[in-house]
What we know:
Blueprint: H1 7-14, H2 21-25, H3 66-70, E1 80-83, H4 114-120, E2 123-130, E3 133-139, E4 149-150, H5 156-168, H6 178-181, H7 195-199, H8 217-225, H9 240-243, H10 263-277, H11 281-290, E5 299-302, E6 315-317, H12 319-330, E7 334-335, E8 338-339, H13 343-351, H14 355-361, E9 370-372, E10 375-378, E11 386-391, E12 395-400, E13 405-411, H15 418-438
Antiparallel strand pairs: 1-5, 2-3, 2-13, 4-6, 5-6, 7-8, 9-10, 10-11, 11-12, 12-13
Helix pairs in contact: 5-10
Amino acid sequence: MILFAPHHRRLSWIAGLGLSLLSLTAAAQSSTAAPASTLDPALFMQGIPPPPAYRIHIGNWQENPQKIWSFQHSRELFPTRSIARAGQVVELPRAPRKLDDLLVSGPGEPAMNWQQMLQVTHTDAIVILHHGKIIEERYFNGMQPATQHLLFSASKSMTGLMAAILIREGKLKEDALVGSLIPELADSAWAGATVRQVLDMTDGVQFTEIYNDPSSDIYRYIGAMGWAPQLRQPGSQEGILAMLPTLKKVHDEPRGSVFRYRSPATDVSAWIAERAAGQSLSAWLQDRLWSRLGMEQDAYMLLDTAGQEVTFAGMNATARDMARLGQMMLQRGQWQGQQIVPAAVVDELAKGGDTKAFEIGGPKSRKGWSYRSQWWVNPSKSGPHSFAAMGAYGQMVMVFPEDDVVVVKLGSHPGALSAVTDPVHQRAFSALMAYLNTSK
């Protein structure tokens, strides 16, 4: 379990895009529960009532294999807010390709083909678009095309996109100080950071995510949020917005000089963007994206116990709808004859952020990458150029501009560590692009 992992593994997880504390601190299963290895995921929550071993609840929802069910049914576990679709569905054309035998292993490694890669990375859904057409679409673990899947930290990129558009529209200044925009944070460590620094996670605010230290900030944060109520102490803050002002310290280095991946930076970014826009992230997504992209299904956002949207990890959507969003981004914000997102915003994201700041604090499995407005950017240092929304347990919406490809991959990997799956995914996507660029 990551809670008691060695220091280097904890850092890998922190850089690995996600929230895994629940799977580590969740209450133990009932004494009548069967060992995880004997549980059949197809039987979770079946029966009236389900047998104790097959019940999913807030105490075990991120355990393995319970997460296979809960990542597809988080609306049944937590309060939510809908992101409604509208209008006629824009059908995605199809041009299927046979990828199963595509070799994705590196030199000197055991042979692994595409199908095996999907299995070892615990894929729940994959949709790949090439030249705007679906060439691969598959579902596993009971997931269906209409199933909304928890995106975890891929949700962060939706906040980043909102803020980047507001900056482009002149409704938000990236050099503005947080304290001037959010008076509630004027006495916190966030106050002296700029909007740009918070968006790029170079704000310098101290926030510890040390999972073998019960005094670490992450314990209070998740307890306040409500995803692990056993962590909340009597009299402590309730809700994300109440927790953010309690962060008072900054690191010694100049702000803007070091990238540190911390989920509270997304919640501050969302607070700033929502106040500038005069609407919540879910309302903005509904108005600007879900009602205009011909989506098939509504999306939704999980709420904390105070009714605040969990912007850093709480969005749920279908694989196909995220593919539509990715294709729009691939087309520099254009969709069905409309400019949904300013082209300059997409160009800026694709270019990436400060590589020197990222090199200091970024995950080693993404060497040479950068981080810009809550999007991960690979400038062809390790695989083809991409910019991506990515989250724990295998969630990703990857845009490959030069290859005209969008990959949406959702999963329920037993661990949140991106360091485990990054090399596999990077080799797989490099092999995919090479194959698509050399075959008809």
